């Protein structure tokens, strides 16, 4: 592109690996602060609109977030068929909440997020994402530590969505990608309920974390399905894990799914229908092989390891699971 065509004066660097950087052209900074838990930016970009960035990592962007949030939320609800309540862990932008509320059968949604400053900033600056979901009378928002809430929880949930930021050791989430955490989720999942976990990238060079997360989940749940969705602002495919104590139908009839969505939701989905859902559940062979070969279970004693150094998985898999530098100077 000719220099005269470049409109951005600021560029936000998102390190994919030590050798791969995705730079997002920033046209405006809407919010920038260090909260009690993490570094937060809310920015406008030239291509994909407004975005939330936590600890230097892209969380979601208004231009393509539907490719993340629709696959995150709806497979669990589709499998259940008529969820009456939903628990969301994380999801500060409110887009996960927005998607949960599409289900006409839903009577109650509880969202738990540790960082109230992020939630308030998203309410103010990311209305395109939450679309007023925080004001829905079915919604309760708790600003609290997820593990503390789960330890006291007696309610059981038809669907649970674990939509947490990447488990950076310096950040608030790393404990929430462990066997102990997933066991707590199973304890509060209603019989026949479904859990979805955002489970990291599934591109070949980054798949180690996803494979280990799925292997960890399989020690807790009898049925786990890995699936992915392409998200351009993540520079690749993003993985999820669908979990239950009931068998998961991976070859559904697309027409039946379309009828279910038409009957049970308010509509408006941009990226998911029956054919798309069928395709999501066909796990590619490179992902199946990576899961079969995964060599670790994540526990509180041995959680995912992230940091400012990286050792390639092929040479030292025990050191770092995913490169994730934290830099307040990411915008340059």
How far the N terminus sits from the C terminus, by CA atoms, comes to 19 Å
Report the total helices: 10
Could you tell me the radius of gyration in angstroms? 19 Å
Question: What is the general shape?
Answer: globular
Q: Main β-sheet, in a few words?
A: 7 strands, mixed
- Can you count the beta strands? 14
Name the assembly state. single chain
Averaged pLDDT:
90
Q: Helicity, in percent?
A: 25-40%
CATH class of the largest domain, please?
A: Alpha Beta
Plain-language structure description:
- The structure is a single chain.
- With 332 residues, this protein is of the alpha/beta class.
- It folds into 2 domains: 3-61, Spermidine Synthase, Chain: A, domain 2 (Roll); 66-293, Rossmann fold (3-Layer(aba) Sandwich).
- The chain contains 10 helices and 14 strands.
- It has helices at 66-80, 95-100, 116-125, 127-130, 146-152, 179-188, 208-218, 254-264, 274-280, 285-293, and strands spanning 10-17, 20-34, 39-45, 49-54, 57-61, 85-90, 108-113, 139-143, 157-163, 189-201, 223-231, 236-244, 306-307, 322-323.
- The strands form 3 sheets. Strands 8-7-6-9-10-12-11 form a 7-stranded mixed sheet. A 5-stranded antiparallel sheet has the order 1-2-3-4-5.
- α7 (208-218) crosses α10 (285-293) and α8 (254-264) packs across α9 (274-280).
- The protein starts with 9 loop residues before the first strand and ends in a 9-residue tail after the last strand.
- The relative contact order is 0.15.
- Mean pLDDT is 90; it is low at 307-320 and 323-332.
